[in-house]
Fold:
Amino acid sequence: MFTQTVLRSRCAKWLAATGLLLLLNGCVDKPSTLERVKEDGVLRVITRNSPATYFQDRNGETGFEYELVKRFADDLGVELKIETADNLDDLFAGLDKPQGPVLAAAGLVTSEARDKQARFSHPYLEVTPQVIYRNGQNRPTDAGDLVGKKIMVLKGSSHAEQLAALKKQYPGLEYEESDQVEVVDLLRMVDEGQIDLTLVDSNEVAMNQVYFPNVRVAFDLGDGRDQRWAVASGDDASLLNEVNAFIDKVKKNGTLQRLKDRYYGHVDVLGYVGAYTFAQHLQQRLPKFEKNFQSSAKAEKVDWRLLAAIGYQESMWQASVTSKTGVRGLMMLTQNTAQAMGVSNRLDPKQSISGGAKYFAYVKDQLDEKIEEPDRTWFALAAYNVGGGHLDDARKLAESEGLNPNKWLDVKKMLPRLSQKKWYSKTRYGYARGGEPVHFVANIRRYYDILTWVTQPQLEGSQVAESSLHVPGVDKSKPVEQTPPL
Structure:
């Protein structure tokens, strides 16, 4: 009897100990966030739907945040799945959902409140919060001037937190937070006079300025701040550590800088006057030539919007212009180039566009096969402007400086040297106005970005009105001031 009792007691203790051990093993064996991502083969990311973060055009998914996070997913060897949040509160809430997104990549900056909601990565982009007003209205110059104004910002944004802090200093300050708008909506509302002011980060102001020609920056509200990715709060740092290692790597190897250059390196090219003029010409000149651009681009396997951007840079979409050097027509072809491309009448816009398309395709095809996209397109534009020989000289200078001769970001630093005797005397083709192709490419990239955005089926925050070329803030009924011949 004693033996059976002892046996039962020992068995019970053994079972209890075994159960505890199994429980402990279960805790130890629970996979980390990073392990789950790799096991599932999917990185689930939540972001905002905006030009500076993530959107879809006719070529598919794009945007600065998308491009960066796609590279991170590729580094992990997993598929990227994007989810967009209706507002910032939902974005942070999404990180806490079981089986939901594990990473937020949405141009986020840290704050005391947000640090309680999530953990943030190393920084990757510095931005400055800016007060935005409408041209023609009194320009605010400091925080005190915000009192008495109709102000709206994104609900749950860092800008709302800034205004809340300012309200303690200026009790008369009033503002509205909305989760029914995005940055482009706020800029449109200022542009149209629906609100007096808003707060937007500098990068998004720069990207969207051209669509809203009445929008102006009043002043910077505070110092620059760093944008970061976010993961859920908690003790599991596996994914965050991997993110930080990735950000450090892309900073070091130049990938991050190339993305910045692609999306933000040319945003100030147009300026306020140029933005307004381009918006008018987009509505009133391009429709006359759009079908010609599309048909010629299709024939030469070129994006028609890129071809149109070249045409705008060359002639501002005017068919009969002639420069002092004798280049003529919408695509400003030289006599020799026109003959080589089969153009008999340079002032015929259809022929000019066709000749320009053929010449661009030819120039691009002549480039070193080691140059890959998207750099290949920027190199082709530079060669289109300055000639392939001078471009090769700049590439050799880049290589001699330890830079990458196949990356536009590196070679464009060398092109201006071709106008300095110290440098061009060492090259095969000699002197060139090397600064011109740099500006040429930057301008075309900006025009191309705008055309890509406005020819989407839908603009952020509103349906495209009347045609695919609707630009907010431009009155089609107003006459366009004629541009003098180049």
Observations:
- The radius of gyration is 28 Å.
- The chain has 19 helices and 15 strands.
- Confidence is low (pLDDT under 50) at residues 20-27, 457-486.
